[in-house]
Amino acid sequence: MKLMSLKRISVAAALALVCTFANAGTFVVRGYGAGLDTRTVDVISDLVTEEFTRTFDAKKYGIVVHYSHIQIGNDNVCYAMTGVSRNVPDSRNQAIPAWSTKATYLIRNAGNLDGRQRQECVVSAIRAAIKDLMSTDPELVKSRSTASL
Question: How many separate domains does the chain show?
């Protein structure tokens, strides 16, 4: 009996990693990249709009976030790309969105960043790209994303 309870707890925890309930409604997020020490959904949940969740049903669609950090000399660049794709089984990677918003965040002359600084850089890029996605009319996002929906 305890084993069954542990399985249920594991399933609930796994779902919590992918879905969140925000004021705007339910949405699914798949994050891919390095430099982020927290769940992608925790970084963006306050930015997702009600209009977005009304347009993109969480059972069918998900927000895809690709992000990276690179150091070039003493400069650090963080990049994020966000868009919408059809949901896929957990064992598969979400499709790269056919249309996306992108953002970069630059930290000049900082040299090697520690983990916290790298995290702040990546989060800044992700949040900027999500803000752009949410400021775009969801119907326009849908029409431009048909190849990945």
Answer: 1
What type of residue is 125?
A: A
Report the pLDDT averaged over residues 4-14: 42
| 84-110 confidence digits (pLDDT tens) | 999 888 777 778 899 999 999 999 999
Q: Do 64 and 82 contact (CB within 8 A), yes or no?
A: yes
Angle at the Cα of 138 from the Cα atoms of 136 and 140, rounded to 5 degrees: 75
Tell me how long the chain is.
Answer: 149
Nearest alpha-carbon partner for 14 in 102, 90, 107, 104? 90
Number of neighbouring beta carbons within 10 Å of residue 131: 15
Residue 45's domain spans which residues? 2-148
